[in-house]
Amino acid sequence: MKAYLDIVQKILDTGFRKTNRTGVDALSIAGAMFEHDMSEGFPLLTTKKVPFRMVRSELEFFIRGYTDKEWLKEQKNSIWDEWCSPDVVPYGNDEQTKTKMMNERELGPIYGWQWRNFGAKYTAYNSSPEGSGVDQLKKLVQTLKTNPDDRRMIVSAWNPSDLHRMALPPCHYSFQVTVIDGKLNLLWNQRSVDVALGLPFNIASYGCLLHLLAKEANLGEGRLIGFLGDVHIYVNHINAISLQLTRKPKELPRIKTEKFTSIFEWHYDDTIVENYDPHPAIKFEIAV
Predict the structure, then answer these.
(1) 222 backbone dihedrals φ, ψ, rounded to 5°
(2) Identified catalytic residue from 44, 137, 171, 195
(3) Sign, Cα dihedral of 231, 288, 81, 283
(4) Of 179, 281, 194, nearest to 237 (Cα)?
(5) Which of 106, 155, 157, 272 could disulfide-pair with 136, CB 3.0 to 4.6 Å?
(6) What does each C-alpha distance from 51 to 46, 132, 278 come to in angstroms?
(7) Tens digits of per-residue pLDDT, 63-121?
(8) Catalytic (active site) residue 171
(9) Are 237 and 197 in contact (CB under 8 A)?
């Protein structure tokens, strides 16, 4: 996708090198926008292979409001392996703390829990929340079906009262849905953007969520837009991501979902990708 590659090129050309909490410097720019028309294909990068199975299973994890890292591991998904809730192990990027974090399963009230329980009190991954919260995702779906012209269909994962208990404060912290001319558009906001490793996952995940919400409401698929804040490439990713820029993008794949009844009953294996023929995978070391 040219929109993604243009962001990469801009960072390499104009990014300012600065420090951050991970201990690995990054080239950073202030603000960028990603935009894609879903009629052009599903936004799964072709200049490197993106493991769409992991994208899909993490999305199901969010939709169901889970916070147990072990569920992801059972799906052979390693996305959250390195993190855990500070309630269990206070964050640190030294090797001893990293090992302790990896060995814990509690992630705290992260993304999906906020989507489904905003305002309730989080207890633990294996306990029900205390008090009543707002099921933002359910409310959004109901509004889509009853008042699709509404301009207040927003879901937020950014809950200041819970940030200190989350394995990671949400990088992509909110999304909005809008319906125009019979097509569903999804716009997400992201405060911190790891362009080499994270952004391709974010694009595919929100693209898949757009697809599911459109099916839920019997709408066409419109535009996927990301408003990006601190947009960066870690210095240890520069060589590998520069390789991507030398590769010619291929035709985008398509996705389809079979046996769909509801987004709340969706299983990630129900959605498959077709005609995905990417360039080989590129290894990027994660910055914890």
Answers:
(1) -105, -115
(2) 171
(3) positive
(4) 194
(5) 155
(6) 11, 36, 11
(7) 999 999 999 999 999 999 999 999 999 988 889 999 999 999 999 999 999 999 999 99
(8) yes
(9) yes
